[in-house]
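User: Modeling request: complex.
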Amino acid sequence: MKKTAFNSIVALLLASSTLAFSQFAIAHAHLKTPVPADKAVVETSPQNLTLTFTEDVEAAFSGVDVLNAQHQPVAVGKATLNDKHHDQLIVPISQPLPSGNYQVNWHVLSVDGHKTTGSYTFSVK
Ligand SMILES: [Cu+2]
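Assistant: Request completed. Predicted assembly structure:
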């Protein structure tokens, strides 16, 4: 009897951890790897920002706003998806960025229909 009770507790724990894991697996798109990286200091202006998410995203409903240290918007091109990796958004920088700090505010719609937003910063030396 004791062993049966133990087994059902184990089964319950396994079931709940599987549930927790699957909820994590279907979670919204979170930013995994931005390039330049969060808080990076780069030598020269990047030509693109590349943002890799934890899930595939819809380019048409995803994009970034880049602000300089004076909180003025910086001109960026239309965000497109990497052809082969639909979790990767590529944003062309229209004109080379002068030295300074930049804030990237991103918003994406993941393929599961959820919207997420976030921000990070990087600097050009
Ligand atoms: Cu989601």
